[in-house]
Amino acid sequence: MMDSKAMPGVEQVGEAAATILLVEDEPVTRASMAARLTRLGYRILEAENGRVGLDVARREHPDLLIVDWMMPEMDGPTLCEAVRRDPVLKSSQILLMTSHDKPAQIAEGLVRGADDFLSKAASKQEMTARVLAGLRASRLVRELETTGAQLASSMRLLERKQAETAADLQSAAAFVHSLLPSQGRPVPNIVLAWEYQPSLLLGGDLFDVMAIDEESLAFYILDASALELTASEIELSLLHGSRMRYRSEK
After folding, report:
1. What is the pTM of this model?
2. φ, ψ for residue 191 (rounded to 5)?
3. Residue 6: pLDDT band with limits 50, 70, 90
4. How many CA atoms lie within 13 A of 86 on its CB side?
5. Could you report the per-residue pLDDT of 199-229, keeping only the tens digit for each?
6. Domain residues of the chain, as ranges?
7. How many whole angstroms from its chain centre is CA 238?
8. 179-201: string of b/e by CB count within 10 Å (b at 16+)?
9. CATH number of 2-150
10. Could you tell me the CA-to-CA distances from 244 to 182, 187, 228, 237 in Å, in that order?
């Protein structure tokens, strides 16, 4: 594997920071293509077969792979399959080179993971255009990955906050329910029964029943209009004050 640095002072076509991995077993062809792409301002990595190319791809995470079809040890389609199975390389685009343009061969290459094809007889202009198209696709995939990761992080944070809020509301609701009067016979011949069902988890209403004497009960309802926690806090304060006042008067 060789790393060909971009030549300074040369006009760059675009995607100047992109890394391209050139996998070609024929040294002269590989050197010629590497020189041409280097002049366009790209960082070029080279590998002499698919096995070496896969190792380089996993280490360097190139934006685009230009892969020859026929190679020893691991051919181009097999390398395409290996790249597509690696989640780290899912944004890397693959340009498969071939000296043939048979529909069956093109179909096989696409099925096995190639994104586009490049004829070995292609002009400089066509090669440049296909490289640019592949790099655009790679950039878009990476942007989607970044956006997806940010959305997933935001969703995890939101779910955690929702769980914390739900736990707080559950605790507050249980506490409010514990303050409701006991059912039964607070005074002779009077049976107290009630059902308290807030429309939400934590309601904004409270009530209480107090025995004034053996024949009389005091019953009142507190209704505060506000947010759930705010309304409950107001009513708990009023309920506590009412009970304290009633006990002091007795």
Report:
1. 0.60
2. -100, 125
3. very low
4. 19
5. 666 666 677 777 777 777 777 776 655 445 4
6. 2-150, 179-249
7. 47
8. eeeeeeebeeeeeeeeeeeeeee
9. 3.40.50.2300
10. 18, 20, 24, 11
